[in-house]
Every structure is written in structure tokens, then in C-alpha cells.
Specification:
The chain is α/β, with parallel strands linked by helices. The chain has two domains: 232 residues, D-Maltodextrin-Binding Protein, domain 2 (3-Layer(aba) Sandwich); 91 residues, Periplasmic binding protein-like II (D-Maltodextrin-Binding Protein, domain 2, 3-Layer(aba) Sandwich), CATH 3.40.190.10.
Amino acid sequence: MRKYLPLFFLLAIAQNAWAKDSFNVCWSHYVGWEPWAYIEASGAMARWGDKYGIEVNIKRVDDYVDSLERFSSGEFDACTMTQMDALAFPATKGVDTSVLIIGDYSNGNDGILSRDAGSVIDLKGQDILLVQYSVSHYLLARALKRAGLSEADVNLVSVSDAEILDVFRSGKAPTLVTWNPILKKAQTETKAKLIFDSSELQGEILDLMVTRTDTDERLKRALTGAWYETMERLRNEDMSVVSSMAESAGASRVSILQQLASTKMLYSPRRGVKVANSKSTLNAMDRVRQFCFEHGLLGDITNLDDIGISFPDGSVLGDSKNIRFRIDSRYMQMAAENRL
């Protein structure tokens, strides 16, 4: 039987006939994104790029916030980030941004460590290290609220993710909020106590690969194909994938496997589609946008609903005429149906 490409893909090919054929993609250290090291080193990305006649240059950016800024400025065509940071950085800066892949959600990979506090309520009055306005900040705000506290009850000390572990080691502050692999290293090296983690916020912190909405169709397909090919290997604990992740992260294979155990990896594209379409994702996104608005992360808007966020079923949070962030499940659905 002859197979026909979807009409929208044929149109996209025609539209991009004179478009560029080389693309730049960035990612940062985090166990859920570390597979991109393998995808590059193994040649998986090159194979999928060849399939669509493009070159894909994958670059690791060690400072996470720097990667967000560089994607927002146009240096990169696609970038790994959480859904909160997709809204607070590119979307807020006017970049129409779409989810390509929902790779995982944090199930203990983000947490609060303290040398002094035995629980969240004991944080009152303490200095707390974190990457301000990051997902760590969101996690802390949610934890404080659950404990009957607010951010006004603590002192936030903002540090970049590239420096935060060294600052915590120095003893500058007794409490740290961060993500793996930094979280695991800090816990092991300092013996600080984990007093709250993202397993208590199931599905609220989504780890994504996003693109500009108008990015070339070929790149979207190639990235999705390379990712799920690798996820199949990782699901089966292919040690070549784990070893590549460990080498990139500067960690042992055992450490990588431990971190994966505290990450809800969505190895199957069908699971990614399910999360994208779930009501809980819409509700989590509503909480995230409120946090962003309350902390001035949505630019100079004066109303929470000024920026629109769309979902696969057509639902919209905010202004439907000003969509800046799109939870898109189409490419994951293509992967699930072997249509890449």
C-alpha cells in the first residue's frame, strides 16, 4: 500500500523549500535531558537529520538560565526547559513557543535540602539558596504555602545553577532548593536533609523540548524521532545510553539510574500525549501562570489573562487572540502512530 504524507506536512515542505537547512538546539544538565548527549554522540540525531535533509547542531549550555535567554534571543531553534520557564522566558519575550516533547515530570528530582531545618515550617527566617524565578522558586513557594508560610517569611538568595553547589558547600546559607544532579550531589556531600521534593507535586513540573512555533517542520520531526528512538533504548536500560548520560553529567551510572528512579520518564510517546491532554496539566499550568504573574515574570502585563496558553483540545487560558505558549501533542502523536 502506498503511504501519503499528511497535507499539512507537504505544505510545510513547500513553504520551507528555500528555508535554512541547518538548525541549532540546546539543552542543560538534568537527568531528564541528559539523553540528548547520547542522541548527539551516537549519531541518532545525524541519522534523523539526514532523513529530512537537515543538519542539527546540538549544544549543551551549562548555565540553564543562559540557555533560556539564548533561545529567546533567537540563537537556538529548540531548547529544553520546564513549562514554567517556557512561559516566563520566550513566551513573555514575544516568542510564540510550542511544546514538541513532554519528556518527563519531576517525581523527586527537585527538592529542598537543609542543614538546620527538620521540616518546611522550620525554614522561617532562614536564608535559602536557589535560582530565583526558576522552577526551584516555584517549588519553594508551593512548599511554603502548604506549610502555612509565605516567601515573606524567608530570605531568598539567588545564585546561578552553575555556582549554586559551590556556594552551598561554602556554608553561605543553610538551605538549598535545586534539581538533580545538583540536588543529589549536595545531599551526598553535605549530609543535608531533604525536607520536601517534587514527588509531593505530581505532574506540576514538566520537562520539555520546545521550539518556536514557526520552526521548520523537518526539525520538529527529526528531534521527535531521535528522542523516542533513544527513549526505547533507555526504557530497556541500554547501558550505552546510561553511560553516555553519566559521562556528560560527570556522574556514575549508578547515580544516573538513581536519578531516573526519581523522575517520571514518559518513555512512550503515547504517555506524553496523555499528559498533554490531561485536565491536571491544564490545572498545573494555571497555577504556574499565577506564580509567574505574581512574581512579575510575565513582563509588563497588568492582567493575568493578557497572555494566552493553548492546549490540544482547543482550551485556552488567557487571551485566545494572543497565544504565546502552546501545549502541542501532534508530534508525539505522530511518533506514537509511527508516522515520523
